[in-house]
Design brief:
Elements lengths: L2 E5 L2 E4 L4 E8 L7 E7 L6 E6 L5 E3 L7 E6 L4 E6 L8 E8 L7 E2 L3 E6 L1
Parallel strand pairs: 2-11
Antiparallel strand pairs: 1-3, 3-8, 4-5, 4-9, 5-6, 7-8, 9-10, 9-11
Length: 117
């Protein structure tokens, strides 16, 4: 039974930092491309960052230079280090996984990030 479990969300003041984790189990997720998405109230889910199976990162312009995605393939865990947080970063953050050129079709339950000014 494949599973993605996010953790690390919370309440933080603007300018602060959080580190999200996504623990994957049940499949060979170390060979999957992984990503982070977020959904703010009343908005659609949007892309934040992704990392290929072999570690190449890619970021949305809104987080470039502030967020860092990484992965530990041995631990089947993906991280999102978020620095210089802004109130507009407030959202539920979801971890996703996809195989090769397919779309993201494995999802975690999400973790809430709230940034106050």
């Amino acid at each position: 039974h494949e599973q993605l479990v996010e953790s690390g969300g919370g309440l933080v003041q603007a300018g602060g930092s959080l580190r999200l984790s996504c623990a994957a189990s049940g499949r060979a997720f170390s060979y999957f491309h992984m990503g982070w998405f977020r959904q703010a109230p009343g908005k659609e889910r949007e892309f934040v960052a992704k990392i290929s199976w072999n570690g190449s990162p890619y970021y949305d312009d809104s987080v470039k230079g502030r967020f860092t995605i990484s992965r530990d393939r041995g631990q089947n865990t993906v991280y999102l280090q978020m620095n210089s947080l802004k109130p507009e970063d407030t959202a539920v953050y979801y971890c996703g996984a996809r195989w090769s050129d397919s779309s993201f079709n494995y999802w975690g339950q999400g973790t809430q990030v709230t940034v106050f000014s």
